[in-house]
Amino acid sequence: MPTLNINGKDTPVNADESTPILWALRDTLGMTGTKFGCGAALCGACTVHLNGAAIRSCITPISAAAGQKITTIEAVATDRVGKAVQDAWVKHDVAQCGYCQSGQVMSATALLKTNTKPSDADIDGAMAGNICRCGTYVRIRAAIKDAALALA
Ligand code: FES
Ligand code: FES
Question: Which ligand is nearest to the CA of 102?
Fold first, then answer.
């Protein structure tokens, strides 16, 4: 049985190594904070971190995460940057229906881990793969800038 390091804990996963991480999280482990949108790396709803970088868990097999660290929305606030992003999301009341938002928070956190003062273009570039059908993009950008300020 494969073992994944998820949110700092080695976790046996009763699934084939070719199973996408998204389904290991949701179906096998019951961690439903990570969402299914398209299943084809087109929407970003399934975004998690692999060693701190944003990846699409719907197309990434368990085998690709062997010996690496997965972080999901359930633990993002245990990290200083992730906490600042979550706080800014609440402050700006970013979420509308909320479906895309765990993926948005994971991508925003990954951005701020590598770019402490992102420009509008940096934000648009980093967030381009995260689709929001409710159109919360203006609030997302404001929240990312606010989180960057809080972390400065
Ligand atoms: S569900 Fe993975 S990118 Fe849409
Ligand atoms: S908040 Fe509804 S899809 Fe983004």
Answer: 2
Please state the atom number of ligand 1 nearest to the C-alpha of residue 39.
1
Single residue among 71, 91, 108 that ends a domain in this structure: 71
Whether the Cβ atoms of residue 100 and residue 37 lie closer than 8 Å to each other:
yes
Rounded Cα gap, residues 37 and 148, in angstroms? 28
The pTM of this model reads 0.97
Give whole-number Cα distances, 8 to 29, 34, 66, 78, in Å: 15, 17, 14, 10
pLDDT range class, residue 79, cuts 50, 70, 90: very high
pLDDT tens-digit series, residues 98-133? 999 999 999 999 999 999 999 999 999 999 999 999
Domain of residue 41: give its range. 3-71
- Ligand 2 center–CA 106 separation, angstroms: 14
